[in-house]
Amino acid sequence: MTPQKNTFNGILNVYKEQGYTSHDVVAKLRGILKQKKIGHTGTLDPAAEGVLPVCLGKGTRLCDMLTDKTKTYRAVLLLGKETDTQDTTGAVQAEYPVHVTEEEVREAILSFLGDYMQIPPMYSALKVNGKKLYELARQGKEVEREARPVQILDIQIESIELPRVTFSVSCSKGTYIRTLCYDIGRRLGCGGCMESLLRTRVDCFVLEDSLTLSQIEKLRDAGRVEEHVVPVEGVFLELPALVTKTGDGDKLVHNGNPFPAELAEPEETAKGADSSAKPAGRSETECNLAVSLADRFDGVRVYDSEHQFIGIYRYNEEKRRYQPQKIFLGGN
Hints:
- This protein is α+β, with helices and mostly antiparallel strands.
- Helices cover 22% and strands 33% of the residues.
- The two termini are 25 Å apart.
């Protein structure tokens, strides 16, 4: 069957499989969906797998709003071994006997709850003096890295079968789970590294709803990809809506300009507003994401008089007008 040629706009919850980089996923999706404008919202190591929200078309304008969302992982910690990458894909640097008790393991892991200063690993994409750390690491170089504040919001220990420990962790942006495993091992005095990592959630995007690349390809052939794309407009439906008036109101928003309050009216009172133009139905993901972004963003959805979604505006009391914050009209 000939692949559909739709341009998709929104967010697709992709299951990143082992062996792929996040960039690989984007490149493959460009081929599957036959569109260029695609971007991800945060990298996953090639050895890791799980949830990777990918922004499509106009949805790429959401990337900066989604990259700092809370993430949840399921990790397997292997005690007694340290590697240069802080996971089992790296070269072993030290091995130690594991004589700790289950209670000591629990105590050490839970001690990381809350704020924690973490030193980023050498095998990471962070830059020092313009050079990515992993490039220096591959040259056998190690440079001093400053500890950065991260936050461990929740840890649930699922099983302890020494020397392995399986736990789930919810954390802030910028947290390296490999480094958390390394630091737990150091605290226990027997070393440790990460054996496997599964990302189960990014904000409201959950593992159960994620799709592999092969599943997306089958949906494309069946013409059903759109059913799984959270639309751009759909993630803002918790915000109140305004509809501009024909003439000056439409002209201003079509050019991405501010507009005075008198050139718009609430959606529910706008004459001729086509409510069917809004996304039909809302998944739990859309509802949760809408609440999350509304809390953070504040403002109103703005539509033109034909009920075409323009973007998010915020009212400026001093200037007595609505000013654009994020515009989604035009382009792909």
